[in-house]
Amino acid sequence: MKAQEKEMAFINEGSYIPLYGAVSKNPVLVKSFYMDIYPVTNSQFLDFLKKNSSYRKSKIKGIFADKSYLSYWINDLDFGNANPKSPVTGVSWFAAKKYCECEGKRLATMDEWEYVAMADTKKIDARTKKEFNEYILSWYEKSRTYENQIGKTFKNYWGVYDMHGLVWEWTSDFNSIFLSGESRKDKSTDKNLFCGSASVNASDLMDYAAFMRYAFRGSLKAQYSTRNLGFRCASTTKPKI
């Protein structure tokens, strides 16, 4: 399974209209890239820690991870009762970024992630489909889905699993919506995301499903780690396995 876990899907160039943070509603171009078919697992992250001791929970510096980092692991090299094929969680952005770099990859950008995540099994953009958004919202109501094994959710149009239904995922620019226009030229602060009431009045399921993702990302800092937050890698060019 390990070789399969490292497989990547080719994501063809295209454009999409971001649901939040855009100055205008013009489409954003996403250039072709590769994305991991599955999130990184406990087993894979253990292999990484064996080679990179400075990222073990007893050794990682506080500026790179908070106290919740790998909190469910028994010790530096033991993830306890967790399933080896479940997504690793409780990992900071710094650790996720380092893991991808060691694989010759990188974290996906937020636009890349959203572009892939808007697909269901048959459509590149399924965001207007009621059943698709109901599926996403039903996951938000479930607990401990991070204990599930990778690859048990639907395979989307691109051949990617677990974009919804398993864990939240880090992106390289996870909080870019809250940066100034100078930092992210096509984005500006979306003040609605600071106010939970903005979602209460959202009659559009698509709007609410997206709101939850953007609001969660906006609450994060790079050293944070939570039990339901994992990651997967991306690559601009075809990676060597």
TrEMBL record:
Q: Where is the Sulfatase-modifying factor enzyme-like domain?
A: 28-234
The cross-references to Pfam families, in alphabetical order and at most eight, read: FGE-sulfatase (PF03781)
Source species, domain of life: Bacteria
| Classification via InterPro entries | CTDL_fold (IPR016187), Sulfatase_Mod_Factor_Kinase (IPR051043), SUMF_dom (IPR005532), SUMF_sf (IPR042095)
Protein's recorded name: Formylglycine-generating enzyme family protein
